[in-house]
Design goal:
single chain, 141 residues, mainly alpha, 5 helices
Length: 141
């Protein structure tokens, strides 16, 4: 008897939860999607911030003295970009050039290092602007 009552109560709770889920999906779907976009944008901005910090580390190093550290941090940045599908498509050609420049038998020159750091920074800025434009565009929908 108690087992049957618990089973019926469980079924009623399941139906109520399902009804609530459908209500939230249809009535509040746009707000839920906006919240999920905000979480995705936060994660994206966090990744960009980490890459910026690594670029600052590279910029502070001298190409003649810290070659191994520069190459290591560049490869760390490339790995982070390749691991992020959103960044990988935008930075594919640049990461290929960074890997090629850092895998050469001769060491990377200071002008080459600065050029790669500047180009990465500029692409990060462009990614920021695109991300903000997408977020504002989605908000108008």
């Amino acid at each position: 008897m108690i087992k049957e009552a618990l089973s019926i109560a469980s079924d009623i709770a399941t139906v109520a939860a399902t009804t609530l889920a459908f209500y939230l999906f249809f009535a509040k779907g746009s707000e839920i999607r906006a919240m999920l976009r905000a979480v995705a944008n936060f994660a994206h901005q966090s990744s960009l911030g980490e890459i910026r910090q690594k670029l600052d580390v590279i910029a502070s190093l001298r190409a003649q003295d810290d070659q191994d550290e520069i190459v290591s941090v560049f490869h760390d940045i490339c790995g982070q970009i390749d691991g992020n599908p959103r960044l990988k498509s935008h930075f594919a050609s640049l990461t290929e050039r960074v890997r090629k420049a850092s895998n050469q038998k001769r060491s990377m020159s200071e002008p080459q290092k600065r050029s790669l750091v500047s180009e990465l920074r500029e692409q990060l800025r462009h990614s920021d602007i695109s991300n903000i434009a997408d977020a504002v565009g989605d908000k108008k929908k």
